[in-house]
Amino acid sequence: MKTKTIRRDKVNVVTLGCSKNLVDSENMITQLRGNDYEVVHDSNDEDANIIIVNTCGFIDLAKEESVNTILEYAEVKKQGDIDKLYVTGCLSQRYKDDLEQEIPEVDAYFGTLELPALLSRLNADYKHDLIGERSIMTPFHYAYLKISEGCNRTCSFCAIPLMRGKHISKPIEELVKEAKSLARRGVKELMLIAQELTYYGLDLYKKRELPRLLNALADVEGIEWIRLHYAYPSKFPLEIFDVMAERKEICNYLDIPLQHASNSVLDRMRRQITQEETRELIQEARKRVPGIAIRTTMLVGFPGETEEEFEELCEFVQDMEFERLGVFQYSHEEDTRAYDLEDDIPAEVKAERANRIMEIQQDISYRKNLDKIGQTFKVLFDRKEGEYFVGRTESDSAEVDNEVLVDAKTQYVRLGDFAEVKIIDASEYDLFGEILG
Length: 437
Ligand code: SF4
Hints:
Largest sheet: 6 strands, parallel
Oligomer: single chain
Number of domains: 3
CATH superfamily of the largest domain: tm_1862 like domain
Bound molecules: iron/sulfur cluster
């Protein structure tokens, strides 16, 4: 009789960085479980004997967090409390040689595309029948869907292409299969992610095919919301707005990092777009998709950013009244084109500029939230926290945007369900509501 061998090893996968890394960890966990490994994710329990750290190498702060995490586990290994320590992800892709020298306690380092090698090191097979299957680590009702890997752009500040390589789109059929599998497991909201969403299809189909992909995903039964993250503004395919307006499943939401508004800075950043073209694009989005929520991120403190250039950015943010906005401070990354420029903006000026932008945005956000009082929205409930059920409207993505709070002492909603909510109060970044019916 054939008996199944259960491994006694237990793996803890520790994920740092963005949602794209999370998806990689989810795939890794599925493969390990498919090989009979017991796997936990980001666990604080100390019973795992194998640790895999999936690192981030995006900017200074992220790199520091990744290195500190590796060092912590290297120490745990030295104490004899774990058997093996592996490191993968962006930081490891970018600085493998240095890390091998600096932190030799790690048993092996792997790059972003080396999952099969990592599995082989664990005596596990890379199972092709598990491609597209994922162990979801987000709440069961939403999941990220990575539609491509890498980026062909040449933004001068960005180290991502160094770590993630050239753009590779996943075929539409594969993504639809993945979406169907997620829907069968209760996922209602898909968050599409990529380094550069709008490039989708150019490598594979020789044309931009995001609209076709969106239509195909919107047809998947059970998927009620599809949300778009990380669109590049230059040569934006405007048909995306038409699909968004036509299909109720595509959220009226666009995450489009703009980085700056001063033409001279945009030029130095090699963003291939001007402020005038950006304004036209945002106007077009608002015309074609009334009520669209636009999320953007700005980058302050780029080499040579003068006070005048920064003021231009402030005016732009003030004028455009984005629904959501975040700010990064420039991080001087070796091997990028901007590394040849002098990182001449002092850290305190970068921080002060970031704060000034966020102060402008805070007022805008508060005003927009106050306008919502008295209105009713469809809300998807993510979690219960303290005395509140916490959910989001179509205008808000998980973890980065506004939330809707409903008093859990007097009302009830099942997590993962949609409900109609009337907004009764607002703060800068949150809404308070009552469930109707
Ligand atoms: S489009 Fe985004 S990921 Fe690509 S190089 Fe520019 S900033 Fe980096």
